[in-house]
Amino acid sequence: MTFPIASSPDHRANLNGSLWMMAAMVAFSVEDAFVKAVSESHAVGQVLLVFGLGGAILFAVIARLQNKSLLNPDVLSRAMGIRIVFEVIGRLFYVLALALTPLSSTTAILQATPIIVVLGAAILFGEKVGWRRWAAIIVGLIGVLIILRPTTDSFSALSLLAVIGTIGFAGRDLASRAAPVSLSTSILGFYGFVAIILAGLIYSIWDGKAFSGLDGQSLLYYLGAILMGAFAYAALMKAMRSGDVSAVTPFRYTRLLFGIALGMILFGEEPDMPMMIGCGIVVMSGLFILWRGKITAEHLDTQ
Residue 107: which pLDDT band, with cuts at 50, 70 and 90? Predict the structure, then answer.
């Protein structure tokens, strides 16, 4: 079964989608840094609630300015329901990973998202993916494994939090691709942040930790996370709707570079040589995929 989507975008659309994806990854990395910083003194449930509430209000205002109704009947579509479920899963477990594990390793695990999304796009949307791009994506994933070096010490049970979060984000992105075209980015953003509020409520009830008071520094962290998250969300939705999923999603790999850099600068994390080698492999794979994305699917199939 495949979901009906618009006709295949041209190469310019793929390029635009790739640029939007990179912009989203920069903003997401900065958002991660703010979330990790505030999670050191505030409960995870509180972080999700405040972050989700701020983002929902921001996108509600944007939708209002665009004369978009938040009560669009298409919000009740199956794709949107699936999207919200995966958003809750992705956000909850990823924020837990940010709070409990290093930023650089959490970001690295997240780089498994493209291969999951491309697989889903091929199955659900019927997108054609040439073997060269498949090979490049797999090589990129091998680069991530080099960074992680899954051993007892470096790949603890806590790392599974980021793995579950990654699966959630991949499901969200695929559902976004299938969401009704009548739903604007502002509406998708609003309900995405409503899902974060839901994740915060669920975890707060389960966790039972008291909320902390807001001081000037924590307010700054929350505001930075909300603004960066809102921009990243909008850029991501634009990217996922601009070009072929298989051509655009590999540029998620750029988040790895930004996340490692912020981990080093802000949290004193020290990536070693294997991590740098793995990063190089991931970046080269992404660049190769961009080059191959300029060739038509029909040509790829004849190679």
Answer: confident
Domain assignment present for 106: yes
Q: Is residue 12 a part of any domain in this protein?
A: no
The string of pLDDT tens digits covering residues 229-267 is 888 877 887 887 777 766 777 787 788 888 888 998 998
What is the average pLDDT across 103-128? 76
Which region among 147-156, 168-177, 274-283 has the lowest average model confidence (pLDDT)? 147-156
The model's pTM is 0.76
Amino acid at 288: F
Number of domains in the chain: 1
Q: For residue 244, what are the domain limits?
A: 17-302
